[in-house]
Design brief:
six-stranded parallel β-sheet; alpha/beta; three-stranded parallel β-sheet; 9 strands; binds iron/sulfur cluster; binds S-adenosylmethionine
Amino acid sequence: MTWAEAVNHFQRRNLEPLAREARGVAEKKFGAAVYLRGLIEFTNFCVMNCLYCGLRKSNGTVARYRLGSDVILKTVEYGFRQGLRTFVLQGGEDPWFTTDRLARLCARIKERTNGEAALTLSCGIRPLEDYRILKAAGADRYLMRFETSNPKLHRYLRDGLNLTDRLQALENLRTAGFQVGSGFMVGLPGETDDTVIANAELCARLGVDMAGVGPFIPNPDTPLAKAAQEPLEKSLFATALVRIACPETHIPATTAAGSLASDGREQTLKCGANVLMPNLTPTENKKDYLLYPGKICLNESGIQSIEDLSLRVKSVDKVISYDRADGRVLGRTEQTLWPDISASTGIKEHP
Ligand code: SAM
Ligand code: SF4
């Protein structure tokens, strides 16, 4: 299927042919495998004020927490014993976790997992030099969604921050040697079909190793409380488009999709996703990492979360894989650096 045909199916709302094509592309690359990444939500402090997010600084209803290094290390060891070989440390932009502190933590995680586990960080924008320090300490991958490829919408939703700065940070991550994940939310207020198409195209242009594509779920404790909830189907279309645009990229079936519909992750796997992220965050903290309402698995332990996902994967004729599944294992050649973000993405800020 050509890109133009894929876009046409999306615009005409023909999900079935698009999903079939996306499934085929994913199967060609990954077979029936669904890779697991153990998620640890290590801090819900955040100095940022993204309009969509429950962790935003101005949300006074959040009980803030930070996991201690001992808890994080124990959680990683537990996941490692269960067979997981990729861990994702995700959190708000929390200055308490200075780059040096985070680097020490990364080094200890690598040590405790005998250097066998891949370590992914997802904690926002830091300077290039800091990314280099984190990479040298043992972190392998970094996730940072661009959220939307529309510069005006991006600036509005991220409380004045420019899309070009986010893209520059993604470029810095690549320069520092990280496998880079990005992606976007689907159904943001002000988004059009063209935005979704441009989002998928941007994932392809950036050559991301991972692309997170999930529904936006309005949070009542944020300025977007009254925004409309778009149906899950929109995210399914977006996932299929990204799979077709980025045949080699790892795409998770997100918790947000599972929160919108009980079989939301299975439906997303059927549209080309190939990753699931069991949530290993200690049960007593999970309820305080509420980006949006209705988040699933809040009362499950890590092992229950893995068992639940295994059943879901079987139900769509796929199999769990504990492989680290690095970007480079997929046979990627050297990723070229993005010489000039505005030239390579066509994105320009408008005053
Ligand atoms: N602070 C880091 C950052 O912003 O990149 C990482 C943590 S942030 C909570 C992870 C992701 O949550 C964001 O990239 C965003 O796409 C998603 N998110 C935030 N609020 C959401 C909402 N209301 N609905 C769905 N996803 C949301
Ligand atoms: Fe903070 Fe990330 Fe939420 Fe923005 S999306 S408020 S940076 S945790």
